[in-house]
Amino acid sequence: MYFFYIDESGTPESSDTTSRFFVVCSTVFHNSQWPELYKKMEGLKRHFFPKTFSRHDSEIKGSDLVSKHDIQNKVKRNFAHQIINIHDSFGFPIFAVIIDKDKSNKECRYRWLYPLSIQYLQISIHSFLEDQGNDHRGILILDEINPKRTLIHSKEHLNYRFGNPNGKKYHRIVETPFFVNSLYSPGIQMADLFAAIIRRQEEMMTKGEYCKYTNTLYQRVFRKTYQTIKTTENGFKITGYDKPFK
Questions:
Q1: Considering the chain, what is the average pLDDT of its residues?
Q2: What DSSP element (H or E) covers 113?
Q3: Are 10 and 19 in contact (CB under 8 A)?
Q4: Please, which contacts does 108-112 make with residues 24 or more away whose CB atoms are closer than 8 Å?
Q5: C-alpha distances in Å from residue 143, one per residue of 6, 93, 232
Q6: CB 95 within 8 A of CB 240
Q7: Which pLDDT band, with edges at 50, 70 and 90, does 53 fall under?
Q8: Residues near 197 by Cβ (< 8 Å), separated by ≥ 6?
Q9: What's the total number of domains in the chain?
Q10: Cys bridge to 1: 10, 31, 89, 211, which one at CB 3.0-4.6 A?
């Protein structure tokens, strides 16, 4: 069984003009690797921030590491690179959906854009599970925001999985998504960091800006994105770096 930890950066609302891009990102680990991942991440936090570290109670927030101001902090940059190194040690890809809200043909709202992003994400996730051979399955693990949204996302997932012709194809993704507190999930914290790095770089490229520190992190993350030569039945290339609105 594979766990796909999903988190986002930016907001999916058109009304929020401070964030043009909305990025949803997923990391993946085999269920047997969860204890090793947890221990490595807890050890890294303790090493970098010994004065503020609290076991099981220290959360990584990508926005606190790669914002325009924070990226200038050498300790925070090194910390971000070490998180990427930990991810490298497991040898798995990441999956990302990048939404440019300015290119949407209708007003962006959380209610429809977030579920749509998860649906796009499942295309490459299911392809990855097929690549593993045999009958490997995976489950989506999302950051719990509030009970109301948890119910909305669960219902949307079931409608898509059992009512949509495309959703019915993704049989290797099982159950409704699990919702957990990101404070206790290193996989979600990683996904949050990667999503923040991608969004920050996309925002800067759109504005014609450049930051060597952000670019270095972005290149490392981008190289992790799932790659395949497969296509969908409609002939669209399957990619782990998907931009639905063009």
A1: 92
A2: helix 110-131
A3: yes
A4: 108/12, 108/13, 108/14, 108/22, 109/12, 109/13, 109/14, 110/11, 110/12, 110/13, 111/152
A5: 7, 20, 28
A6: yes
A7: low
A8: 62, 66, 80, 214, 217, 218, 221
A9: 1
A10: 31
CA dihedral over 35, 40, 44, 46, signed as positive or negative: positive
Terminal alpha carbon distance of the chain: 34
How does pLDDT run across 111-125, given as a tens digit for each residue? 899 999 999 999 999
pLDDT of residue 203: 95
CB-based contact 200:70 (threshold 8 Å):
no
Q: Which two tokens stand for residue 162?
A: 């059992």
> Cα–Cα distance between 22 and 42 in angstroms, integer?
28
Q: Looking at residue 70, which CATH number applies to its domain? A: 3.30.420.10
Quickly list H helices, 176-246: 186-207, 212-222
Is the confidence at residue 237, as pLDDT, over 80? Answer: yes
Provide the b/e sequence for 182-199 (b: ≥16 CB within 10 Å): beebbbbbbbbbbbbbbb
Q: How many other C-beta atoms lie within 10 A of the C-beta of residue 212?
A: 8
Domain ranges, residue 186: 2-242
Q: How many residues does the chain have?
A: 246
Claim: this prediction has a pTM higher than 0.85: yes
Task: Locate 51 and state its tokens.
Answer: 């004065």
**Each residue of 176-223: pLDDT tens digit?**
899 998 888 999 999 999 999 999 999 999 999 999 999 999 999 999
